[in-house]
Design goal:
heterodimer, A: about 0% strand, rod-shaped, B: about 190 residues, Growth Hormone, Chain: A
Chain lengths: ~120, ~190
C-alpha cells in the first residue's frame, strides 16, 4: 500500500509539474510574465525598475522604449528630415563658432594679417 | 646693457607684449560671448516668442553676416595691419556673430530633446550624443582644419567670404527644413494660476 501511495503521489506531482509548465508557456506566449519573473522580487517593478502600483498605474518618467538600440535610433534620427535638420544646424553652429574664434584671435594677436595667408 | 638687466628687461617686454595680445583676444572672446550668454539667460521667454525655424534661420544668418562683415573688413584693409578703427569693427562683427550662435544654441537642445521624445523612443542620450558629436566634428574638421587650409590656399578674406556664403546657404536651408518643428513650451509652476 505504501508503494501504491507513493506511486499516486508521484503521479500527481508529475501532473502538477506539467500543468505548471503549460501555464508558464501560456504566460510567456501571451507576454504577460514568466516563472522567473514571478519568483523574482522584481516582479512589481517596471522596465526601468520603477515600481508599478497594484491598480496598474505606472509612475514613471518617459524613458527609452524596450527594443530600441543605440544604432537603430541613430539611423532613425538621421532618416527623419527634421531631426537631421537639427543635427545639421548643430554642425553648422559648431563650424561657425570654432572657425571665427580661432581665425580672429590670430588676426588680433598680429600672427596673421587680412591679406596674408598665415 | 649688463647681463642682469637683460634678464629683467626682456621678460618684462615679452610679458607686456603678450598681455597686450592676450587682452585683445580676451576682449574679442568676451564681446562675442556676451550676446550668447544674454540669449541663453532669456531662453524661456525667447523660445516662447520666436519659432524654431526663425531661430535657426536668423541665428545662422547673423553668424553668416558677422563672418561676411569680417571678410569685408579684410577686403577694405588690404594687406595692412589691423588698426584701432578696424579692431573695433572686428569686435562689432564678433558681437553679431556671437548673437547668432547663441540664438541657435539656445533652441537646438529643446528641439532635439522633443523630437527624440516624440519620434525616437525617448533615447535622449543618443540624441545628445549625435548632436554633440556633429557640433564638435564639424567645428574641428571644417571650422578649424578646413578654414586653416582655406586660409593658406586663398587667403584670410576669401576664406571668410566662402564660409559666410556657405553659412548663408545653410541658414536658408535650416529655416526651410525646420518649419515643421514646434516647441512645446509648458507653463512653469510659477506661471500656473
Amino acid at each position: 500500500m505504501d508503494n501504491a501511495d507513493d506511486d499516486d503521489d508521484e503521479g500527481g506531482g508529475a501532473d502538477d509539474a506539467k500543468d505548471a509548465v503549460d501555464l508558464r508557456a501560456r504566460l510567456i506566449e501571451a507576454g504577460g510574465a514568466s516563472s522567473s519573473a514571478e519568483a523574482s522580487p522584481e516582479k512589481d517593478r517596471g522596465i526601468s525598475g520603477i515600481p508599478i502600483e497594484d491598480n496598474g498605474v505606472t509612475y514613471s518618467m518617459s524613458g527609452p522604449k524596450p527594443g530600441t538600440s543605440w544604432a537603430s535610433t541613430c539611423v532613425s534620427m538621421l532618416r527623419d528630415p527634421e531631426t537631421f535638420c537639427v543635427v545639421a544646424v548643430s554642425a553648422a553652429m559648431g563650424t561657425a563658432e570654432y572657425s571665427i574664434a580661432g581665425a580672429v584671435m590670430m588676426l588680433l594677436s598680429g600672427v596673421m594679417s587680412f591679406g596674408g595667408a598665415g | 646693457m649688463e647681463a642682469p638687466g637683460k634678464f629683467i628687461l626682456i621678460p618684462v617686454c615679452a610679458i607686456s607684449l603678450t598681455s597686450c595680445f592676450v587682452y585683445r583676444c580676451a576682449m574679442f572672446l568676451a564681446i562675442r560671448e556676451l550676446p550668447d550668454v544674454a540669449v541663453q539667460l532669456g531662453a524661456p521667454a525667447y523660445l516662447r516668442a520666436v519659432p524654431v525655424w526663425m531661430t535657426f534661420g536668423c541665428g545662422l544668418g547673423l553668424a553668416a553676416g558677422g563672418t561676411g562683415a569680417l571678410a569685408a573688413l579684410g577686403a577694405g584693409a588690404g594687406d595692412d595691419g589691423v588698426d584701432d578703427e578696424t579692431r573695433k569693427l572686428v569686435m562689432a562683427a564678433g558681437c553679431f556673430h556671437g548673437l547668432g550662435v547663441g540664438m541657435v544654441k539656445v533652441a537646438v537642445l529643446p528641439a532635439m530633446s522633443q523630437l527624440v521624445e516624440d519620434r525616437h523612443g525617448s533615447m535622449f542620450g543618443v540624441g545628445l550624443g549625435v548632436q554633440g558629436f556633429a557640433t564638435k566634428l564639424a567645428g574641428g574638421a571644417i571650422g578649424m582644419v578646413g578654414l586653416s587650409f582655406l586660409i593658406e590656399s586663398v587667403g584670410f578674406t576669401r576664406a571668410l567670404s566662402f564660409f559666410a556664403a556657405a553659412l548663408a546657404v545653410v541658414a536658408l536651408a535650416a529655416g526651410w527644413f525646420a518649419r515643421g518643428i514646434k516647441l512645446r513650451v509648458e507653463a512653469s509652476r510659477d506661471d500656473a494660476p
